[in-house]
Design a protein that fits this description.
204 residues, mainly alpha, Serine Threonine Protein Phosphatase 5, Tetratricopeptide repeat, binds adenosine-5'-diphosphate, binds magnesium ion, kinase
Length: 204
């Protein structure tokens, strides 16, 4: 498997479709433990990303990841915007100027994104954030040369569902304390859609 600009574009477009289709779900989840805007925030970001992909052409994966990072930082807003934005910024740096990435190299790119989120948000696993999807998912697949995309998608889904029983320690939901238990984290859910979109794009 080789990942080029074409695969990255298809992945990001699939992500846009997931977010657009689940905008209400994301805002409803955020209504329960936050301020109810996560769907709106993410939908605004992916719409602008779509406009960018329509109007500009890119030579290498790093270039597109960089441009998308700027859109996410500028357009998503809230806590999630800077987190997704930094993730894509670091992913771009890791991808560099390579034209095609192997599965292993691409996993390295995603791990760089994960590190950016952890560095910026300072969340650890178990604190009911998007980190609870990114970190264990990438750990599970670390070092793999081939990825079973069904396993990938199911793992991501299970990880976001696991945030339901967690007590929020970071972000707006932390203000609710124990009352955050019983609700799935909205950012973990949008990250699940990011990884589901990747599986849908790359599975044969
Ligand atoms: P806001 O809370 O500013 O309205 P959003 O609703 O767009 O922002 O995003 C909320 C999501 O951001 C949460 O569900 C959580 O997954 C994620 N999040 C918040 N703070 C952190 C953090 N410190 N580290 C990682 N993720 C975080
Ligand atoms: Mg919110
Ligand atoms: Mg908000």
């Amino acid at each position: 498997m080789k990942i080029t600009v074409k695969e990255i574009e298809a992945w990001l477009e699939a992500f846009r479709e997931e977010i657009t289709a689940h905008k209400e779900e994301l805002s409803d989840l955020d209504q329960a433990i936050g301020d109810g805007d996560h769907g709106i925030n993410m939908a605004r970001g992916v719409k602008e990303m779509h406009n960018l992909l329509e109007t500009k052409s890119f030579q290498v994966p790093g270039e597109i990841l960089k441009a998308v990072s700027m859109v996410f930082i500028g357009k998503i807003g809230g806590a999630a915007g800077p987190l997704y934005g930094s993730a894509f910024m670091k992913m771009a740096a890791e991808a560099g100027t390579k034209e095609a990435l192997s599965a292993e190299e691409f996993l390295g790119v995603l791990r760089a994104g994960k590190s950016a989120i952890v560095q910026r948000g300072k969340a650890e696993t178990g604190e009911k954030t998007m980190v609870d999807v990114w970190l264990p998912l990438l750990k599970k697949f670390e070092g793999k040369q081939e990825i079973d995309w069904d396993d990938w998608e199911n793992s991501a889904e299970e990880l976001k569902n696991n945030t339901k029983e967690m007590h929020a320690k970071k972000g707006r939901a932390a203000y609710l304390g124990a009352r955050s238990v019983g609700h799935i984290d909205p950012g973990a859910t949008s990250s699940y859609y990011l990884f589901k979109a990747l599986a849908d794009t790359l599975r044969e």
